[in-house]
Amino acid sequence: MKMSSRKTRLAAAILVAGALAVTTACSSGHSNSDGSKAGASKAPVKTTSISVGTAADSKGPAAAEPGAKKGGTVNMIDRDDFSHLDPAQIYMNYNAEVSLLFTRQLTGYKTSEDGSQKLVGDLATDTGTTTDGGKTWKFTLKDGVKWQDGSPITSADVKYSIERTYASFIKSGPTYIQGWLSGSDYRSAYEGPYGGKHLDAIQTPDDKTVVITFPEAHTDANFTLAMTGYGIVPQAHDTKEEYDKKPFSSGPYQITEHVTDRSLDLERNPNWDPATDPIRNAYPDKWHMAFGVQAQQSTERFMADNGDDKNTFSFHNQVHPTFIDQVKADEKLKPRTLEGLTPYVDYYYINNTRVKDQKVREALIKAFPHQQTRQLQGGTSYGDYATAYMSPTVLGYESYDPYGILKKPQGDPEAAKALLTQANAVGTSIVYAYNNTPLQQKVTEAIRDALEKAGFKFVPKPLDAKTYYDAIGQVNNEYDLYWGGWGADWPTGYTSLQPVWDGRAIADGASNYAHLNDPEINAAIDAAQKVADPVEQGKAWAAIDKKLQDKAVSIPDVYQRSLSLYGSGLGGVKFDTLAGLQSPLNIYVK
Asked: Rounded to whole angstroms, how far apart are CA atoms 226 and 74?
């Protein structure tokens, strides 16, 4: 998922079967603020295992938060209202995070006290079973799962929820399941359930059983179905377009009032049974969420910690850059400060259709001033130096670093110039496109200095921040180098690498911003996604990552980090490494 100023889609972090190590790690994208903070070198990324749970792991209730108690009202302040609450419309992480309180899926993720995470059955008794390598998936619903009116959640609800994702008014959610079932032009194949037609590929032999059959194998479909975009919607209470403002609850809370762009209020759903839910705790009696609070204002309020702000958190508002040093130096704030890796990787994409000489691309990588650009954008709080195209939060991640980024993060102009000399390319012009904001102007000058020292001719091209992705997303753009961020849509290497580096995905507006079309990489992507064993599949994605680095297709820059605060009157506030946000699932009023 690409990253923009607020539109960070849900990313997921997973390690299947606990056989590999990943970081415990949304981010606001390429910052348009003027914050400028330095930071010392970070220690190596701390890792923890994440696994696929068993049927036993999928049983409720969720593990209790030590010291937690029920009661009270928790407040949330954020810049924007949630752009979507209809699960079929949800693709952004902050929409998905609040939906955990009132929308359930077939599968989901639970976090243990030690920080390890598991994919488990949410409504389903387990994470699904397949006997044909991922072509056919069977899920069995738990006993006792109910809607907010007390009616049972059935397999028909699951089938209907997937079918309505085909409807013409559903424009913002994921399209993986639809495309897998019905092809890329899936809306022409099926118009949704409102005309009385249904999908034969989804069978419900009884009220508890759902069988989904794809034309081809999809070994990680159970991960895909953990996306909020495939959360359930009851046919009896489906208000179509209006459902986006007030969905019907299957989770521990239900919406009592939603005033667009002002507030969202929740209270307990009396028909949610914690015995069915291994993921969610429900400590507060109520939630009051207010919008229109900018990051600078929320940071000031959290630092002051007065009145109702003591019982307040924020899904998305991070510490404003101007306060980073102050917050990190204040010992009194440390107990209520959260910092961690997000699932996003920042790249500086090299346009491979324009920069064809690999030696020149290697020189760009060698010369790039990671240390200087990171310092301008928040120092260590902005991110950890990247040594792979996949995030450390993705199945199969391995640090590689063939160009010595960790040894010389400031860039190596001498080595870069030597490569240009070998290629007879000293003086090569590099057209660098950037967001025309005060901060990115400073970043651009740091890049100019580094590349010119290495022997490049630097040509800066400022772009309007509102249309930045539109400009760099053109196949025939006139730029050689430009920033972009990406995070996986679910926890395997498939959505981490395929959308960005598959040469058959080159099109205006698509995500292959480097315009790479390498037959070896394309074939390796096809082979990796057919590997049924998740650990072996992870190794296949790691091998592709190394091939990409060996071919110098672009410049990995940082694994983005998040720094946020919350009020002193709350306990159980934790960083959700899957979304890169503060999680509501264990919050309680002290």
From this structure: 26
